[in-house]
Specification:
Layout (H helix, E strand, L loop, with lengths): L2 H4 L14 E7 L2 E8 L5 E5 L9 E7 L5 E17 L5 E15 L7 E2 L8
Antiparallel strand pairs: 1-2, 1-4, 2-3, 3-6, 4-5, 5-6, 6-7
């Protein structure tokens, strides 16, 4: 291992839940669906067709198969657009956003529960 590689530090120190969930995104423009991936206590990645602005606040609702729901308020941290080759030789495309969790909704008629964390300046 090269000395430079030994100094690389993993920024993502939180445990990740690597499962795919259907989620619902609530924005000023309305409601849409997405696919939540790579979920941690700090945030998640969402595949979505919608374009979201950096810094935009969105409500993300996870819906369980048993009807339970959990909603959190998130902030858009980054966007990606991917182009890839499919098995059939055609081109595939995907779009997504990285979201940082800002607060959790504990009840519809109560204020959001803010997440305590350090502010990251980029």
């Amino acid at each position: 291992m090269a000395p430079q590689q030994a100094q690389v530090r993993e920024r993502r120190s939180h445990l990740r839940f690597d499962k795919v969930f259907t989620i619902y995104l609530s924005t000023e423009g309305g409601l849409s669906r997405g696919i939540g991936r790579n979920i941690s206590a700090q945030g998640l990645f969402v595949e979505t067709r919608d374009q979201l602005s950096l810094g935009e606040r969105v409500k993300v609702t996870f819906a369980g198969e048993d009807g339970t729901e959990m909603t959190c308020l998130c902030e858009v941290r980054y966007q990606v657009a991917l182009s890839y080759g499919r098995k059939d030789g055609r081109e595939g495309n995907s779009r997504g956003v990285g979201l940082r969790i800002v607060a959790y909704e504990v009840a519809e008629d109560q204020p959001l529960l803010l997440v305590a964390r350090e502010r990251v300046m980029h």
